[in-house]
Amino acid sequence: MMANLRGPWTLFKKELLRFWRVSFQTVAAPVMTALLYLLVFSHVLEGRVQVHGVSYTTFLIPGLIMMSVLQNAFANSSSSLIQSKVMGNLVFVLLTPISYLQFFLAFLAASVIRGLVVGLGIYLVAILFVDLPITYPWLILAFAITGSALLGAFGIVAGIWADKFDQMAAFQNFIIMPLSFLSGVFYSIHSLPPFWQTVSHFNPFFYMIDGFRYGFFGTGDISPAISLSVVAGSFFVLSWLTLKMLKSGYKLRG
Amino acid sequence: MIPAIQLEQVQKHFGGLAALKGVDLTIEQGEFFALLGPNGAGKSTLINLLAGLLKPTSGKLSVLGFDVQAQYADARRALGVVPQELVFDPFFNVREMLRFQAGYFGRGRENDAWVDEIIECLGLTDKAHTNMRRLSGGMKRRALIAQALAHKPPVIVLDEPTAGVDVELRQMLWEFIKRLNREGHTIILTTHYLEEAETLCSRVAMMKQGEIVALDSTQNLLNRLPGKNLQLKLADALPTSLMDLVKFADGLDYTLALNEVAQVEFVLTELRAANVAVVDMQLIEADLEDVFVNLVGRA
After folding, report:
1. Across the A/B interface, how many CB contacts are shorter than 8 Å?
2. Model confidence band, residue B162 (pLDDT cutoffs 50, 70, 90)
């Protein structure tokens, strides 16, 4: 490997190993949480509700997978950065020749991998109990990758901005959680009043969830082309902002 | 030859506070250089600027001729910095951390022999597979030093490397660092243990309030204070006629600052006149601490 690529590759490997070392917490726990949601909601609503022509449990699974993919992609970059900042060991990376772009890509790629690993884990357990069709696998992959990349980038912003675990918890609980819960994971937005349907269109999580679900059922609340454009556009805008932040050394290099 | 380190009119302001006030400094390759000063003098700011952890308000800094801003990748490859704070990554063991650190600098498996050598020379062999969290403070300090050396940098900055560590590590560390210096590595040391700087370093810069107040060879700095210290252990209190000479007193132990050796006779005459017996007596040269106190004042 070229010497100047070995730096970011090492950082990427280190980030992967970091979450894998605590995989009970970073992989098994979110899989378990998603399955508990599935158990409770499917028990209550199965047989009473049909969405997009499929049973409620079947409808719910892609949304839960994508919600977990997004939340874990965010958690990976944000928690790694805030821990390294609080512990002071981020200095080991800042002292190296790794560029701000390489730094960004290494953290981003590790976040995407964690998101995909958690998503795959939920999928593999869920299909043991529910027959889940796959209509457009490339759409599923496209939304999983762009969505987790978007949240990975957001996690980098949060990790750099936050100085305390308390501030990071605020990010998680007041931004990520509400946006993911109000994105149509548990319902089709067509079941909402017109005002809340309009509001949902301003939630980027809605496009990620709906597009991902489209890949399974071949139907959704909105065209997957629009969803993918919104997700990819949001990713590029956020990445540009994140790179500007990293280049300026905001909160990292005084 | 290109200097190992060069600073030209470097200023660093934190809001209204001027941490560095136009510092000029050149450190040649192969030097063992000490950067001394009380807390808040600007030593760590200077090191953080060199390492790229801070950006200068104005001025230029270079490492082996590479500008630390414009050519940051080359400058950082040339530099190994041991941070002052005892920081560590709790997820990994010592060997993993060293491999990662070398990898960040573009070094792969071919570097493993060097990593093994550092581990051995710093007495970390038994702890190579121990998680960083489980290491004692002294072992964490060794690992921190090892991390800075993992990519075998030609210029090594040690920011208070022996703060709070035992004698064994100090000796082990200095033997290893002296060896690296003999092999051509440039060493820049900040320390509060002035005897370490005096013993190890060929040149010294003393800083005070963001400025370099003295920059010379260690010997020239020592020669600036031609006086001697007379250490006395007396059977009775020192006569008042000698009180002006007292530099340090602890019970009946006194250190008197003499301008010249001939003053010893005057001191003894005064003691005899006051009928004060001398239990023990030693005449010693002024050391770097005396020069430091003289130039910088007590921290």
Report:
1. 84
2. confident
Q: What was the pLDDT predicted at A102?
A: 97
Domain of residue A183, residue span:
23-248
Q: Do B100 and A254 touch (CB under 8 A)?
A: no
Residue B196 backbone dihedrals phi, psi, to 5 degrees: -65, -45
What does the pLDDT average to over A147-162? 97
CA distance B148 to B55: 21
Q: How far apart are CA B80 and CA B148, in angstroms?
A: 5
Q: pLDDT tier at B299 (50, 70, 90 boundaries)? A: very low
Q: What is the DSSP string of A54-104?
A: EEHHHHHHHHHHHHHHHHHHHHHHHHHHHHHHHHSTTHHHHTSS--HHHHH
CB contact under 8 A, A22 and B87: no
| B130 and B40, same domain (yes or no) | yes
Distance CA B94, CA B280 (A): 50
Work out the mean pLDDT of chain A and round it to a whole number.
Answer: 92
Q: What is the pLDDT of residues B222-239, one digit of tens each?
A: 777 667 888 999 999 999
Domain that holds residue B238: 228-296
So what's the pLDDT on residue A1?
A: 61
Bridge-based pairing of strands B203-208 and B32-36 is: parallel
Q: Which of B204, B223, B242 is the last residue of a domain?
A: B223
Angle (CA) A27 A31 A32, round 5°: 115
Residue B294 has pLDDT above 80, yes or no: no
Domain membership flag for residue A88: yes
Could you give the number of structural domains in chain B? 2
Q: Name the residue among A10, A89, A94 with its Cβ closest to that of B88.
A: A89
Query: In total, how many domains does chain A have?
Result: 1
Q: Are residues B200 and B179 in the same domain?
A: yes
Q: H-helix or E-strand containing A186?
A: none
Judge whether residue B246 has pLDDT over 80: yes
- What pTM value is reported for the model? 0.88
Examine the pLDDT at A152 and tell me if it is beyond 90: yes
Same domain, B15 and B71: yes
B52 and B96 part of one domain: yes
Together in a domain, B239 and B163: no
In a domain, A243, yes or no: yes
| Cβ-defined contact of A7 to B106 (cutoff 8 Å) | yes
- Give yes or no for a contact between B78 and B155, defined as CB atoms under 8 angstroms apart: yes
In this complex, is the C-beta atom of A9 within 8 Å of any C-beta atom belonging to chain B? yes
Final residue of a domain: which of B198, B223, B248? B223
pLDDT at residue A47, as a whole number: 66
The domain spanning residue B109 has which CATH number?
3.40.50.300
B118 & B234 share domain: no
Average pLDDT over residues B153-167: 88
Same domain flag for B178 and B63: yes
B46 touches chain A (CB under 8 A): no
Same domain membership, residue B163 and residue B263: no
**Which of A1, A93, A249 is opposite residue B55, by nearest beta carbon?**
A249
